[in-house]
Amino acid sequence: MKRLIDIFIALFGIIFTFPIILFLLILIWFQDNENPLYIAERIGHKGKVFKMIKLRTMFVNADVSGVDSTSSNDKRITNLGRIIRKLKLDEFTQFFNILKGEMSFVGPRPNVKRDVKIYTHIEKRLLSIKPGITDFSSVIFSDEGDILKDKSDPDIAYNQLIRPWKSRLGLFYIDNSNIIIDLLLILITFINIFSRKLSLNLISSLLILMKAPKNLIRISKRNRKLKPFAPPGSDIIVTSRDL
Predict the structure, then answer these.
(1) Helices 2-32 and 179-192, interaxial angle, to 10°?
(2) 117 vs 12: CA distance, rounded Å
(3) Is 177 left (phi over 0), alpha (psi -120 to 50) or beta?
(4) CA distance 226 to 237
(5) C-beta atoms surrounding 104 within 10 Å
(6) How far is the C-alpha of 79 from the C-alpha of 208, rounded, in Å?
(7) pTM of the predicted structure, to 2 decimals
(8) Is the pLDDT of residue 66 over 90?
(9) Pairing relation of β-strands 49-55 and 37-43?
């Protein structure tokens, strides 16, 4: 049933957003006469590497810097890219990844290899299902770029501030997901485009209804400053991505 819903929504999404995608592809191309798509390698179901399709929001070869996490003031982002990122338009092309069976509409967001290789034993369970375009953390941390803004090392900041909760929320989803939850998360993700405050209230209410742990409910409200925290399955805060 989940796969059928994924295919239906992906097909509808492609048809509905195709004019927008085409328009953006043309704009990105004329920006610098380079490929308007960015093919990002991510780790998916069962640890398999797949190529996630995104609209390019950075300058060509921006990834040679070795920095995977992106702050809102990252100099690699183009002027057009900032608009695309703010409106989350670069995610539309991932509908094609859903049709290919590499992603689901709802599921833990896929990570880069360098972050997955330092997953704890518990976090590796995130690879037991297909990654998704959206989930709890996609709404709660939709301001990821602002969280990482002005950080000297965005990758370490991501692993200290976002990953600990992103992983916990992903594991909670795996243990409690169903079709109704998926549809609600899709709806809340759509609402988040227009009202972050309302979407956070809805997410926290949903987690309360699902009897989520108090720490997840608390973090979902995002009314406290994020502090470095250890990932699930460890009591050590990440300070390096080297094994």
Answers:
(1) 30
(2) 35
(3) beta
(4) 13
(5) 25
(6) 39
(7) 0.93
(8) no
(9) antiparallel
